[in-house]
Amino acid sequence: MESSPYRFTISFFTCLALLFEFITTITGGHEANQRHEGQHSFILRTSPEKSIQFLSNSSFKIALFADLHYGENAWTDWGPLQDVNSNKVMSTILDHENPDFVIYLGDVVTANNLPVANASLYWDQAISPTRDRGIPWATLFGNHDDAPFEWPIEWFSGIGIPPLTCPSVNSLYSGKEGCSFKGTRRLELMKNEIEHNRLSYSRHGPQDLWPGVSNYALQVSSSDDPKLPVAFLYFLDSGGGSYPEVISSAQSRWFESKSQEINPDSRVPEIVFWHIPSKAYKKVAPKFGIQKPCVGSINKERVAAQEAEMGIMNILAKRPSVKAVFVGHNHGLDWCCPYKKLWLCYARHTGYGGYGNWPRGARIIEITQQPFSLKSWIRMEDGLTHSQIVLSS
User: Is the keyword Signal assigned to this protein (predicted)?
Assistant: First the structure.
């Protein structure tokens, strides 16, 4: 794999992309952080708490790319071809929808097939259709985004933080980061993305929060006032790979604390994203075909839920501001179903990597600010749309 021409191609295009960003930065001046595309323009704020601001009363559109699985079987002819096909799917959707923001909803790469250096190259290739169009994005992690390593699940109950075993003095790892994330590659992938892409809104998240790395919040701001939020987007790492497939009690408390900090009166609508569905998805899943009030087009497998429920769904259900949760993971499901006062939704399998031969696509989310509404539909690789639904109005 080290000498394959495919790997050289990825490196070549990575260099081109970085050169393009450098030229844009030095020539764009104050406009480097501003995107103008018809009525869907907004300003990218680069304060410590990044926010995205409407520039008009138009809608704010988000495309969800789920389960791309880049780098799968990279040593074969089949693997690289799937990555090319995945690029085509994303390009079609981006050109049809012209979204204001993209969320990579986990399983960006099949990292257990790849050395960490190669995983970063494939990760970079996966974000290139979005980056090349000047669209900002954020990522969170799925169960295939780092190598498998078994942490005992009982460590994640109680206080929700496992005991740390810091590396020895002679270890290749050193410092707080090496200790806090011993056994994972998530940190390296996220660090590489953030450092090399000014359009990335991804974050590491609190370093003492287990499991995972991608636990953070973003603000979508009003066109009238950059400090006035229209919606909050929350990202949670649902584990897998180096961690149990779970949102731990520590993460649940972090969400509860963070949401109270930035949205104390629950006045602002909140939207939540993670990769592996919670057990609540099993409770609302359609039994056979998809019947109302659920909306979708495929229901071809059982819900593969997290290993345990450690409080996050109880917290979400009690917050009136939480409108919807969006997940990936199950390639043969694309429905939205109501759960108590919120909606539980699947994205659509976007990538040609991973299992299943169902047609590829992406879930689109549209937010309007005056008055607030949250709508969604699925855009397919052939350009058609279906499964339109109003999740909040």
Answer: yes
Residue spans per domain, the chain:
5-392
| Cα 333-388-289 angle, rounded to 5 deg | 40
Residues in contact with 349: Cβ distance below 8 Å, sequence separation at least 6, in sequence order:
66, 67, 328, 331, 332, 334, 356, 358, 360, 361
- Tell me the C-alpha distance between 200 and 28, whole Å: 17
Pairing of strands 342-346, 322-327: parallel
β-sheet bridge partners, residue 220 = 52, 231
What CATH number labels 5-392? Answer: 3.60.21.10
pLDDT of 288 reads: 85
Per-residue tokens: 390: 């109003």
pLDDT at 98 over 60: yes
pTM value is 0.83
